[in-house]
Design a protein that fits this description.
It contains ten helices and seven strands. α6 packs across α8. The protein has a seven-stranded mixed beta sheet, sandwiched between helices. It has a domain of about 190 residues: Rossmann fold (3-Layer(aba) Sandwich), CATH 3.40.50.150. It has about 290 residues and is an alpha/beta fold. β1, α4 and β2 form a beta-alpha-beta unit. It is about 35% helix and about 20% strand. It binds S-adenosylmethionine (SAM).
Length: about 290
């Protein structure tokens, strides 16, 4: 698919500050995994809906009243579910939905939204296709945990956003899917669950590049399932199953899955259901004038 790229920019310089490598995910694996999930993504995206709504609400609460942000981006927009609401949040006539997965963008374009108000474009959050100081606001729901380096991400945001511009992000933190991780640990030593950063890593990366923090919050979210396989189906359904170079390249055998399912039973609640705990983070920052 050829999506028009309406913006161009010099390649971002690598910042000299410490780079926080969160995992060794290959960008092409990320793009392929989300592309494969695109067609049924919305059916499984319960956590994404919840956190996106929370991020809209939290951002609204700290935005200066009656400010219009003309050029805004829904970064890692996926199927564009939140893109029209992002335009509304920032008082903009249109929004640019950017995603690394062309499969997701195809889905967004084919079934989505009022295309007069949303322009979709392919791109990478760590090499944004925007000119310096060209954006007024960025919203990103549950996408930046797939970046390799949070320092590069914030350097790119700082470069692209104009003075007074706002960036609102939600992401997952270490401790997310702890039950699944522990259950896999009883089976083998391989990495089956993605690694995530701490809240302080995001705060420090944003502050050290010069963003002013308007809001930073952590929330523990527990989803409940009847069966472990239902959780695994959800993770696969949104394309968010483990994508790291440490992952086993062979197919995981039925025997191992059965052992994980058995180990996960230790977490069954009195209600009879199985918890899947997420540590969610919400950050709203502003580029100082
Ligand atoms: C869990 S989905 C969230 C989609 C959307 N924000 C929502 O709330 O429904 C994560 C999205 O981030 C995109 N993504 C991952 N890494 C990215 C990157 N480096 N740059 C841009 N998009 C990225 C994926 O392709 C995927 O569409």
């Amino acid at each position: 698919m050829n999506l028009p790229n309406r913006f161009s920019s010099p390649v971002a310089e690598t910042p000299s500050d410490k780079q926080l490598l969160i995992n060794m995910s290959q960008k092409s694996d990320v793009s392929r995994s989300f592309g494969a999930a695109a067609g049924h993504y919305e059916e499984f995206a319960h956590l994404q809906r919840y956190m996106g709504t929370q991020l809209l609400r939290k951002t609204q609460a700290v935005l200066p009243m009656h400010t219009r942000f003309e050029t805004c981006v829904d970064l890692g927009c996926g199927t564009g579910f939140f893109s029209p609401e992002v335009a509304e949040l920032f008082g903009a006539e249109s929004v640019i939905g950017l995603d690394i997965s062309e499969g997701m963008l195809q889905q967004a374009v084919s079934h989505k939204v009022d295309l007069k108000s949303v322009y979709f474009t392919a791109g990478d959050a760590e090499a944004l296709p925007f000119a310096n100081n060209s954006l007024n606001a960025v919203f990103s729901n549950l996408a930046v945990q797939w970046c390799k380096s949070v320092s590069v991400l914030f350097a790119e945001l700082m470069r692209s956003v104009d003075s007074g511009g706002v960036v609102a992000l939600s992401t997952l933190l270490e401790g997310s899917l702890a039950e699944l991780k522990q259950s896999w640990a009883t089976v083998d030593d391989e990495q089956h669950v993605n690694s995530f950063l701490e809240l302080a890593d995001y705060r420090n990366a944003a502050a050290s590049i010069g963003f002013e923090l308007l809001d930073i919050e952590q929330e523990t979210i527990t989803l409940e399932y009847d069966q472990t396989l239902d959780l695994m189906r959800d993770l696969k359904g949104v394309g968010a199953h483990n994508i790291s170079t440490d992952r086993p390249k062979h197919l995981t055998g039925k025997n191992k899955i059965k052992k994980v399912v058995d180990a996960y039973e230790n977490y069954r609640l009195n209600s009879g259901r199985l918890p899947a705990t997420y540590q969610a983070a919400y950050l709203v920052v502003r580029k100082c004038s």
